[in-house]
């Protein structure tokens, strides 16, 4: 029992440290995690860590958060997974809720908000470059990405995005199914396949059931839970891809496009996962209770998917067809992000030549000077404030 408590304290301490210091998005988080959990603490080796990263890239949802949850579960069971998520996530949730309060109280100057909207253009463009290089490295996947972007721009609905992802998976399977899959690593778990099946059942029941029940329940809380659970369940490719899905769900009915993009910009300035944007949006949608519901609903699919998939990962990982379909899905994610770069990010953030000049400056600082994202966000917010004060 004492050992368990020590493990829990250790998990919370390590994950909170990462939650306070992990700037730079999912790719950077994977690097921070490796340094903390593999190099310093030696909780697992590189091969097992690479396998966990592969699993979390395979699943929808926030990949870096899922890696953290998985490592917490390997170290301390289900509760260890929760503590790992809590420590990594809560610092940025708190910061974004405070920002939402500033915005709603009108105590945040519109020039600063415009600067945050502009920086979102640079950040998404930067993410698009990196993801394109990794996820669409050949002509076939570039074609899938471009096709996905065209469809999303012409048919801007959530169902179109889901259809694009499914079709891309089919194309990926058709093109890459003959390639070999890597050998898996066996992971020591405190739960087995029965628990995994139960988790998958709950995941599917909520994903299918919530939208069916929602028309019959007039409740803001239920609507918020449905929106964020659905988005957290079907977003492939990490935090930046959540932008277009959330924008179509919450803008106009719940908030203005300006408020939405300002929150996305602010989310770049805080450490931790980008999915904590749910805290900001929940505050605008329904106050403190909205924050709790939105954050829980956004990350609950990740827990269910991790618990559901870990016991079967050794079998799944050896299937070349699964890996092939995933290549197509990942390429479509690049296309979805490309469409989002134009609408809503560029259309909401760039009002004229001055805004575009600031966006180019921010992009240069990120890509060529390689400054930390939070520094770029602060500089761009100041430039926006100065530009609109003159």
UniProtKB/TrEMBL annotation:
<feature type="transmembrane region" description="Helical">
    <location>
        <begin position="196"/>
        <end position="215"/>
    </location>
</feature>
<keyword id="KW-0812">Transmembrane</keyword>
<protein>
    <submittedName>
        <fullName>Chromate efflux transporter</fullName>
    </submittedName>
</protein>
<feature type="transmembrane region" description="Helical">
    <location>
        <begin position="82"/>
        <end position="105"/>
    </location>
</feature>
<feature type="transmembrane region" description="Helical">
    <location>
        <begin position="324"/>
        <end position="342"/>
    </location>
</feature>
<keyword id="KW-1133">Transmembrane helix</keyword>
<feature type="transmembrane region" description="Helical">
    <location>
        <begin position="111"/>
        <end position="131"/>
    </location>
</feature>
<feature type="transmembrane region" description="Helical">
    <location>
        <begin position="227"/>
        <end position="246"/>
    </location>
</feature>
<feature type="transmembrane region" description="Helical">
    <location>
        <begin position="289"/>
        <end position="312"/>
    </location>
</feature>
<keyword id="KW-1003">Cell membrane</keyword>
<feature type="transmembrane region" description="Helical">
    <location>
        <begin position="371"/>
        <end position="389"/>
    </location>
</feature>
<feature type="transmembrane region" description="Helical">
    <location>
        <begin position="143"/>
        <end position="176"/>
    </location>
</feature>
<dbReference type="InterPro" id="IPR014047">
    <property type="entry name" value="Chr_Tranpt_l_chain"/>
</dbReference>
<dbReference type="InterPro" id="IPR003370">
    <property type="entry name" value="Chromate_transpt"/>
</dbReference>
<dbReference type="Pfam" id="PF02417">
    <property type="entry name" value="Chromate_transp"/>
</dbReference>
<keyword id="KW-0472">Membrane</keyword>
<comment type="similarity">
    <text>Belongs to the chromate ion transporter (CHR) (TC 2.A.51) family.</text>
</comment>
């Amino acid at each position: 029992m004492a050992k368990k408590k020590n493990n829990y304290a250790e998990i919370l301490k390590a994950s909170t440290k990462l939650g306070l210091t992990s700037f730079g998005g999912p790719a950077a988080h994977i690097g921070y995690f490796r340094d903390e959990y593999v190099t310093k603490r030696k909780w697992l080796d590189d091969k097992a860590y690479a396998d966990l990263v592969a699993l979390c890239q395979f699943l929808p949802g926030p990949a870096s958060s899922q890696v953290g949850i998985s490592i917490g579960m390997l170290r301390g069971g289900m509760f260890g997974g929760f503590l790992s998520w809590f420590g990594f996530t809560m610092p940025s949730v708190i910061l974004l809720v405070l920002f939402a309060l500033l915005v709603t109280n009108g105590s945040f100057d519109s020039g600063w908000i415009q600067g945050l909207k502009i920086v979102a253009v640079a950040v998404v463009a930067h993410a698009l470059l990196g993801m394109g290089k990794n996820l669409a490295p050949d002509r076939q996947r570039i074609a899938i990405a471009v096709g996905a972007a065209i469809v999303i721009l012409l048919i801007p609905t959530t169902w179109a995005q889901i259809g694009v992802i499914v079709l891309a998976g089919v194309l990926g399977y058709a093109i890459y199914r003959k390639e070999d899959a890597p050998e898996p690593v066996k992971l020591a778990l405190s739960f087995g396949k029965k628990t995994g099946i139960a988790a998958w059942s709950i995941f599917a029941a909520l994903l299918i059931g919530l939208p069916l029940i929602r028309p019959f329940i007039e409740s803001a809380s239920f609507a918020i839970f449905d929106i964020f659970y659905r988005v957290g369940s079907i977003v492939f490719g990490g935090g930046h891809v959540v932008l277009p899905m959330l924008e179509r769900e919450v803008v106009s009915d719940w908030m203005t496009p300006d408020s939405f993009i300002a929150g996305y910009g602010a989310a770049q300035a805080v450490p931790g996962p980008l999915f904590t944007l749910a805290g900001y949006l929940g505050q605008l949608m329904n106050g403190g209770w909205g924050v709790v519901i939105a954050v829980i609903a956004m990350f609950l699919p990740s827990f269910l998917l991790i618990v559901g998939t870990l016991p079967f990962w050794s079998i799944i990982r050896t299937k070349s067809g699964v890996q092939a379909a995933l290549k197509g899905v990942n390429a479509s994610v690049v296309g979805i992000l490309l469409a989002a770069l134009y609408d809503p990010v560029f259309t909401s953030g760039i009002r004229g030549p001055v805004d575009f000049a600031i966006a180019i400056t921010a992009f240069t600082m990120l890509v060529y000077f390689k400054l930390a994202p939070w520094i770029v966000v602060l500089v761009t917010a100041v430039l926006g404030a100065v530009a609109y004060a003159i």
